[in-house]
Each structure stands twice: as C-alpha cells, then as structure tokens.
Amino acid sequence: MKSSLEPTPALTPPSCPINAPLTEMPGKQSEEGPVEAGASEDSEEEGLGGLTLEELQQGQEAARVLEDMMALSAQTLVRAEVDELYEEVRPLGQGRYGRVLLVTHRQKGTPLALKQLPKPRTSLRGFLYEFCVGLSLGVHSAIVTAYGIGIESAQSYSFLTEPVLHGDLMAFIQPKVRRQTPRRLRVPLPPHRNVLSSLGRRNHSHCVGPPRASPTRRRPLTGPTGLVELLGLFGVHRHHRTHTIHYGDPPGSIGSHWTPIKSQALQGHPRPRLTYRPYRVTRGPA
Ligand SMILES: Nc1ncnc2c1ncn2[C@@H]1O[C@H](COP(=O)(O)OP(=O)(O)OP(=O)(O)O)[C@@H](O)[C@H]1O
Q1: Rounded Cα–Cα distance for residues 219 and 200 (Å)
Q2: What is the DSSP letter of 178?
Q3: Is the pLDDT at 91 greater than 90, yes or no?
Q4: What domains sit in the chain, N to C, each tagged with a CATH number?
Q5: How confident is the model at residue 63 (pLDDT cuts 50, 70, 90)?
Q6: ipTM above threshold 0.90
Q7: How far is CA 90 from CA 28, 94, 101, in A?
Q8: Rounded to an integer, what distance in angstroms lies between the CA atom of residue 274 and that of residue 209?
C-alpha cells in the first residue's frame, strides 16, 4: 500500500483545514471558473490539463466524497495508545512515512496490519487523506482492505488494514529479463546486408573463413590493380559507408578510414568480422 503523503500532484492533499471549502480539494476547477462545454477541443484540453470534461467532473465528485469522508473520520478517530488496544506481533514492513506492524486485537485476537505514521512527520490532514484513500480503494478485491479504524496516539496516527501474510506482491514479480537461449540452439545472426550484396550471396555461409576471392558480376571486388580484393583478404574494413578508390592508388594512400582486423584473427578470434562495405572503384584523375 502506498503512502500518499508524498507531494504527488494528483493525490497530495492541499494544505487547508479539514472543513475547507470543496474548491480546495484535488481536482478543483480552475480559478477562471467552470469550463464551458462549447469551448473548442484544443483550448478545452489545455484548460483541463489533458482531461476530458467528463473526467474532470468525475474527479471533482470523487474529491467531494473524499472530503466528506475525511471530515467524518476526523470526528471518529479513536484516541488511545496503540498497545492498549493491540498487541504487537512483528513488523511487516517499513515505508517512507511510517512502519507497518502485525498486531492482534487484545480481546478478540484478530490479526491486523497496523500502519503507524509518526506525528512529527505527518499532519492530521495528511493522515486522514492516506486513511480515507485507503478506505476508498480498499473495497477493490485486488487491494488490501482497509478497516475504518483510525487511531490518534500521543506520538502517532495509525490505521488498520487486512494483513497480507504471504509476503509482498513485488517479491513475486520477476523482473523482465531476456531468457538466454542455450548456445547450441542459437541461430547465428545474419551478416550485414552489405556483406551479402558485396559478395552477391544471400546466405551467410561465407562468414566463416576468409572472404572468397571470386568477384561477382554485380559488384566486382577487384579492379585491375587487385587493390580492393587484397584489402579484403588481409582483413581490412572501414567505418564509412562508401569510399572511392582510384585505380593505381597504393594501399598506404587509403588512410585512416581503413582499420585492420587482422589482429582479431591472430588473437584466435573464431570469426574475424568481415565488414565489407560497398566499394566504388573509379578511375582516378588523368
Ligand atoms: N497490509 C499489509 N500486510 C502486510 N504487509 C504490509 C501491509 N501493508 C504494508 N505492508 C508492508 O509494509 C511495507 C511498507 O508499507 P507502506 O504502506 O508503509 O509503504 P509503501 O506503500 O511500501 O511505500 P510508501 O512509503 O511510499 O508509502 C510494504 O512494502 C509492505 O511490505
């Protein structure tokens, strides 16, 4: 169960007395007055903070009900020390604003969860807000039931809920981790499209072992100097998408665009990365 004393925009109770007018509750209408139904859609959405008129009205109605509930609960708070009424069994958890204890009713022995919020850190209004939101939501079958018992002690405010003794739901939720496929079942990733196109093949059998020297008709890997093919055989790849190589260029003139991957092969890398890119072989300036 979440404590809502944190100043979240939607749930934080405004700092006004319990009997403050309804306009001070969350979901109140803006000071410009009620929004007219005939306003244009854009300006309506801006004025309502992204809510539809219907959603805004529902929010205002819920705020009114909550305000009434808080006013009634303030009048019916039990003023007592917790240990007069309940026996502490063990702590159930610790939240940011207080602790939750497993207690039993001293006379009936009923087990209950008691959420205790220390007064120095919790205002009466903040406590009532937490208590009443819990009461409202607790009717849902998937949310811990809150009992309508609020206690004011010298040092704390407390309220009681149904105890959940099988642990925190969060402990049962597995983080989303990608399941590892056993190595023997793994399918090798297809090579980069350019490898296929530059080698003129549609399967990736050529990825294992040295690149084939045979040029294709579509994209020859070699010019008359044999330069491009030579670079490929020596395991050279480049980072950029295209590069113009002029016939007759000595290998040294390729410059820093080219990175040797020979070292990978020498270090026993099982599959030297063959990252051929489309080469553009042109005649150089005369
Ligand atoms: N009814 C309950 N039954 C069993 N354990 C509970 C119950 N309510 C709370 N707890 C345990 O106590 C812990 C603290 O609960 P609490 O409601 O104070 O804070 P929270 O909702 O976890 O966080 P926050 O401090 O932000 O409100 C929970 O994480 C949970 O482990």
Answers
A1: 7
A2: P
A3: yes
A4: 22-29+45-167 (3.30.200.20), 190-282 (no CATH)
A5: very high
A6: yes
A7: 41, 12, 6
A8: 9
Alpha-carbon gap, residue 131 to 9, rounded angstroms: 18
Angle between helices 124-137 and 53-75 (to 10 degrees): 120
Give dist(CA 282, CA 111) in Å, integer.
86
Q: Which residues carry a binding-site annotation for ATP?
A: 115
Residue 72 has pLDDT above 80, yes or no: yes
- Write the CA distances from 92 to 58, 112, 141, 178, 208, integer angstroms: 35, 11, 21, 32, 59
Å from CA of 116 to ligand 1 middle: 11
Q: Answer yes or no: is the C-beta of 163 below 6 A from any ligand 1 atom.
A: yes
Atom 30, ligand 1: which residue's CA is nearest?
93
Structure tokens at 2: 């979440």
How remote is the CA of residue 96 from the centroid of ligand 1, in Å? 9
Q: Which amino acid is at 278?
A: P
Residue 69's pLDDT band, with cuts at 50, 70 and 90, is very high
pLDDT digits (tens, 9 = 90+) for 145-191: 999 999 999 999 999 999 988 776 666 666 666 666 666 666 666 55
State the closest ligand 1 atom to the C-alpha of 100, by its place in the atom list counted from 1. Answer: 12
Name the region of 109 (left: φ>0; alpha: ψ -120 to 50; beta: rest).
left
Distance CA 194, CA 215 (A): 14
Is the minimum distance from the CB of 100 to ligand 1 under 6 angstroms? yes
Which protein residue's CA is at the shortest distance from atom 31 of ligand 1? 93
